[in-house]
Amino acid sequence: MRIRFDKLGVLIAILLGLGTLLAPFATFRANRIVPGSPRSILESLPPIWGTALLIALGVAAVLAILKTSAAARLAVAALGLLALMLLIGTAGSFLTPEGNTYARVSPASGFWTLLFAFLLLAADAITRMKPKPTVRVLLLGVTLGALAAILASGRWDALSLLKEYSGRADVFWNEAAKHVTLAIGSLVAAVVVGLPLGILCHRVRPLRAGVLNVLNLIQTIPSIALFGILIAPLGWIAVNVPGAYAIGVRGIGAAPAFVALFLYSLLPVVANTVVGLAGVPREANEAARGIGMTGAQRLLRVEFPLALPVILTGIRIVLVQNIGLATIAALIGGGGFGVFVFQGIGQTAMDLVLLGAVPTVLLAFAAAIILDALIEINAPLNRAGRTA
Amino acid sequence: MTVSPTTADRAAARPRARAWIPLALRALLLGTLLTFLVAPSIFEPILKPLVQDNAPAIYNQGSLFTLTLLHLRIVAIATTAAILVAVTLAILVTRPFGAEFLALSRSLVNVGQTFPPVAVLALSVPALGFGEKPTLVALFLYGLLPIFENTLTALTTLPPAVMEAARGAGMTDRQRLFRVELPLAAPVILAGIRLSITVSLATATIGSTVAARTLGEVIIAGLQSNNLAFILQGGLIVGALAVLIYDGLSALEARLRRRAGL
Amino acid sequence: MIEIDGITKRYGDNIVVNNVTMTINPRTVTVIVGTSGSGKTTLLRMINRLVEPTSGTIRLDGEDNRAVPGFELRRRIGYAIQGHGLFPHRTVAENIATVPVLLGWETGRIKAKVAELLALFQLDPETFADRFPHELSGGQQQRVGVARALAAEPNVLLMDEPFGALDPIIRAKAQEDLLAIQRLLGTTIILVTHDMEEAFYLADRIAVMDKGELVQYGPPAELVERPATDFVETLIGATERPFRMLSIETAGAAVEPGDAQGAAIAAATTQRDALAELLWSGRDAAPIIGADGQPIGRITLDGLVRRAARRR
């Protein structure tokens, strides 16, 4: 049989080659803020492991180039990712001199290139396998579980990112909780207000254009400005409205961030509710009327279930967007992962930036996969298009 | 049967009767924006009540006009690059040669859109240092996605009968692309560009946290000195720019749509 | 002349067109019929190489159709499809000018050709040239589609269910117009349809495709009298046979000397329609008038009944 080549595989092999041969695997710095010096794979790892990794990468490149089944490619990608993850930890302890607490070892461009190459291979394999939503969530769970296991095992403790973390573990979880509360809390508030507002806009046609235009306008105000603008009115309310201070209303901190995220969230929720309800087939509605359902029954038993996938799509947009925007809250003292990002930028300490950015990306990514699965389960026949 | 022009015109004339209202509002917005940028001191009395006694009501650490131009410049450069790359990539994966990459590129776009702009910005600082560069890269990467997604959608949902006719008429692949596919896809591509620019205008303000010179400077100065007037003027200028550009592109898109008979 | 010689198309293990050989005479109308999935459209699309055959050759006037690049070949062959496929972003005139522009004709010649075709298809150039396709009715769009296919004066016109999207009344008119234009220009037309009425009305010769095979190829009368397979017989319909025979030829071909009473029938009417007229008006015979309106004889019920019967 003729050997067939895979075009994407060639690209992945090139990336693997570049990541292995031309870019450093790890960076070593004598302390937290001095410029680092690059270390290749063989320099960063004990000889046995370095050689083994080089051979493994070569084999992976060959396997990627050949046309093989998607499952086989996924297996190669998973093993490659696992090897990279474990060995970067090894590099950390190998490069750090015994007892030196100032030295910092971090993954360098070669590592990130290799990581990207394997992620690309995995994404391609998963795309070709077209897994069911439950399987996708399962894959996500396995991946996050593996990450958690590596973290818990202490294998990465010698890496600079984890050193940044260990210094502020309490703060980290505190900010994580604030970040999730901000993102999800504002989403819940937006759904509680937006859903009835959307239904109202659907029923009362003249309201629709006005409400949607106002919500659209809010979206054009940049997030840092909206956060800032809300400081004054909320500060005023905290001082002048009895009881407001007691329930947590403040001029700075989490309250304006919460309100800003809530305002941004309204448009996708309201717009998708309107679109979803408008998309309910006339016949379904007519049939519901024909068998004698009241207006409320129709809404709950016919219109709402049929519009649900589109509404869920709106919620997915909001959640992913909020997880990202919540980082901005740090600028007005609202907490969240943004605290590390902006502190890191301020101190030019990139590991600190990563400590804030990586969990944010993981969180957004996980939220997207879970909600996409939910949407697909709720719309088994016709995958709903994204609106707003 | 022919379309009678008289009935069509009459139907179109009715909404046109009040069409001047939004147009006038936009002109007013543009006028106010330009006046504010050229002679901000005129507006001082309005903004004065927002600040404490001695604080300045108008941004005084640089010209608002210059900052606006710099802001627009960053967005323009990033968006132009994003358009070129996104449209080229979308064309490549919809050709027979790149078909293998089509499904993957779709899922990559899906994944890419979950990356928060701040994270993209922060993550490009290690590679590029502070200043304009990381902002440009973040805006470019983030701007790619909506344009790529829309171009892909447009190029893969062209009416099959039209494509068949183009082939049957003896157009080469290149002639088909430039004379039929791209003109028909133009309105949808433009919608992607519009989305991309709106997001970029807002995201560029965050660039000021890594020392890029944009209108974000005004807002951040306001946050640091607790000056509500600064925050408000920075935010409203960006908002006004976004509204005007969004509207302009929407109008252009509607024109293209009509021209394309869609 | 178009010679199709042992042409086969397979996709993997699936044979769509199997070893078809047929010759199409110039200036005739050949209709390819068959059920959906019979390979008729694939066969048509191999003539202008929208589909490349797996094996076999097709010659146009003796020249192998692979002698030039596919796109150049297609510029020489007219192509009209169901749902017209007009370019929605171009005006009627620009649509018609598509192939002449590709061929690099000069502007004056293109303009003249567009005006000529619009007039030929009964579309006033003043009114229609600058309209966009979505501003036309279905029938008008279809006419522009055929005009576009004929713009570069091709010798051969391929049509894939060109009238499929039209309602019955407009379709009948479109078929009539097509025959008139074919006679005027002398174009060789190969048309694919699944509508047997249409096939019998238009065809000089009919090719019947079944599961990728060409099962019969001949004049319409031959199909009715001597169906090659059960499939052809089913396709024609046993109870339709006498009427199919009558719908092949015009009343003019059945004219007998003599005189008759009542309203006259035009010589161009099909014999089938003439029979219907006689039956409905309760007459044994009717006068026939030629294209100039002058009587040329009469048509009789007996004569038509004889023509409808199987020939020995």
TrEMBL record, chain A:
Residues 176-371 form the ABC transmembrane type-1 domain. Keywords: Membrane, Transmembrane, Transmembrane helix, Transport. It comes from the Bacteria. It is a multi-pass membrane protein. Its main location: membrane. Gene3D superfamilies: MetI-like (1.10.3720.10). InterPro entries: ABC_transp_perm/SBD, MetI-like, MetI-like_sf. It holds the Pfam family BPD_transp_1. The keyword Signal does not apply. The chain crosses the membrane at residues 48-66, 73-95, 101-123, 135-156, 176-200, 212-237, 257-278, 299-319, 325-345, 352-375. Signal peptide: none annotated. GO terms for biological process: glycine betaine transport; transmembrane transport. Belongs to the binding-protein-dependent transport system permease family. This is ABC transporter permease. It comes from Ferranicluibacter rubi.
From TrEMBL, chain B:
It is a multi-pass membrane protein. Pfam families: BPD_transp_1 (PF00528). The chain crosses the membrane at residues 23-43, 70-93, 114-131, 137-163, 184-208, 228-249. GO terms for cellular component: plasma membrane. Keywords: Membrane, Transmembrane, Transmembrane helix, Transport. The keyword Signal does not apply. Residues 68-249 form the ABC transmembrane type-1 domain. GO terms for biological process: transmembrane transport. It comes from the Bacteria. It is found in: Cell membrane. Belongs to the binding-protein-dependent transport system permease family. This is ABC transporter permease. It comes from Ferranicluibacter rubi.
Automatic annotation (TrEMBL), chain C:
Residues 2-236 form the ABC transporter domain. This is ABC transporter ATP-binding protein. One of its GO terms (biological process) is quaternary ammonium group transport. Gene3D superfamilies: P-loop containing nucleotide triphosphate hydrolases (3.40.50.300). Keywords: ATP-binding, Nucleotide-binding, Transport. It comes from the Bacteria. InterPro entries: AAA+_ATPase, ABC_transporter-like_ATP-bd, ABC_transporter-like_CS, P-loop_NTPase. Belongs to the ABC transporter superfamily. The keyword Cell inner membrane does not apply. One of its GO terms (molecular function) is ATP hydrolysis activity. The keyword Transport applies.
